[in-house]
Amino acid sequence: SAGFAAAGFAAFPLAGCKAQDASMLDSTDGSNLLAIPPLQRGEIEQGARVFRLSLTPGQKEFVTGVASPTIGIDAPYLGPTLEMRRGEWVQFHIDNKLAEGATVHWHGFELPAAADGGPHQLIRPGERWRPSFQVRQRASLYWYHSHLERGAGPQVYAGLAAPIYVRDDEEERLDLPSDYGVDDIPLIVQDRVIDGSGRLVYPLSMHARMMGVRGSRIFVNGTENAVFDAQTGQLRLRILNGSNARLYDFSLEGDRSMQLIASDGGLLDRSHIVRSVRLAPGERAQVIIDLSEGRPLRLLASSPENAMGMMGGRGMMGGGMMGRGDSGDASADVFQILDIRPASSAQRIRVPTQLASLAPTDPSSAVRTRRFVLDMGMMGGGMSINGAAMDMNVINERVPVGQWEIWEIANASMMAHPFHIHNVQFRVIDRDGRAPPPLETSLKDTVIVNPREQVRLLLRFEEHTDPDLPYMYHCHILEHEDAGMMGQFVVVKS
Ligand code: C2O
Ligand code: CU
Ligand code: CU
To answer: Of 317, 297, 177, which is closest to residue 238 (Cα–Cα)?
Structure first.
């Protein structure tokens, strides 16, 4: 049968099937208890943490009573949160029980290219893939997802994505909320298109090829209109924009403030009080919210772009310092994505303002500059980086190991692109010469590049690997990635 990655899966003849994960409708107002992905710690075997996972076809009711075909990892849709510690070795046994090839990429990790899970590490149906690597990343929220050649969009959309928690001593010393599912909550935010009959569809129209597939309904961990009953006076929310293409400004109803503590690759040097956090697909942020007043809180997500991908008003900064109500046409598009109900007696715990010690971002340490120009061509018909579309047989960049470089990412198009680089956590030097906002003051692996903007990154790859096996850099709007806004690099001995 045709795969999810083929022409789109709306044609699967599964309407009317009863889903196993009947949605957890718990009230008459249409709200649902927030699904929390199960936490999986794997098993320690011969000094390594071993995870056994299967990619499986599933069904999910996005609308009660109507099942849609999905893909999950040991689940009908999405998968377990994998927990690991910095410094340890992890090993995976990943069985592909799908009827199509797939890959599993460890987004945000520094690892050997053979373990990366990019388009070159195809797992055919019925095959098992066994990557292993040492966890070098700082404690943070990372994620794993499909990276199939020309097919990441439909597979992630169908559910092939889930969170990873890396823990470490540096973070544990701070005593931040870290009780999984209690006061430390992963939120995978995804928009989806549900057709008139209530089924999930992946409409790859001309418009969606250009803009990416964007839905008008928002799910958090697969739950729409989600409710979370807090038991503590504060919550740590780990937000992952797991959408294919939509950017969001996250905020609390009533303009309440949040404490921003971490970006993609770990803690900021200090916490920042913010009222809004902007995340593009692939980006993460962690915020602490205060429930000690006993008032319910609503997490909102609004779109900073209009239907044509234009940023409205002054919302061009990215990363969380802007106000709201200034985002042009899309400001009408405000979704209430999570209702947080406080505990009756909630204590406030103080979060330290000083969080981590980060090396200063020093561009003078760089020995060379590389430039990457992102473009879309006419009507999205020419997705490219430096004028070339992704070619599996072409290595675009050879980067010497261990040397600081500046990567200059220039956006020649009229819509924003989240630029992601594998095998590294980088620092943001500046945006058109301006200092980056708080979210971009720590380690990042994905960065928004606004229309006509140039963002400079400082980075260094730690280890050279197989000279013929490349890593990827690409736009994390998955339809752009699938259409070729991606390139390949190898890390070579200097
Ligand atoms: Cu999250 Cu190359 O992707
Ligand atoms: Cu990645
Ligand atoms: Cu893009």
So the answer is: 177
225 contacts 218 by C-beta, under 8 angstroms: no
pLDDT digits (tens, 9 = 90+) for 343-374: 876 677 778 889 999 999 999 999 999 999 99
Residue with the smallest CA separation from ligand 1 atom 1 is 107
Contact 240, 78 (CB under 8 A): no
Q: Is the CB of 107 under 6 A from ligand 1?
A: yes
Domain finish residue from 115, 142, 169: 169
The number of domains in the chain is 3
Q: How remote is the CA of residue 102 from the centroid of ligand 1, in Å?
A: 14
d(C-alpha 64, C-alpha 352), whole Å: 43
Determine the distance from the C-alpha atom of residue 326 to the mean position of all C-alpha atoms in its chain, rounded to a whole number. Answer: 25
Rounded-to-integer distance, Cα 333 and Cα 476, Å: 22
> In this predicted model, what pLDDT tens digit does every residue of 433-485 receive, in sequence order?
999 999 999 999 999 999 999 999 999 999 878 888 999 999 999 999 999 99
Measured from the CA of 486, which atom of ligand 1 is nearest?
Answer: 2
ipTM of model over 0.85: yes
Query: Do 37 and 99 share a structural domain?
Result: yes
Range of the domain at 149: 32-169
160 and 194 fall within a common domain: no
Q: What is the pTM of this model?
A: 0.92
CATH number of domain containing 228: 2.60.40.420
Counting ligands in written order, the one closest to the CA of 423 is 2
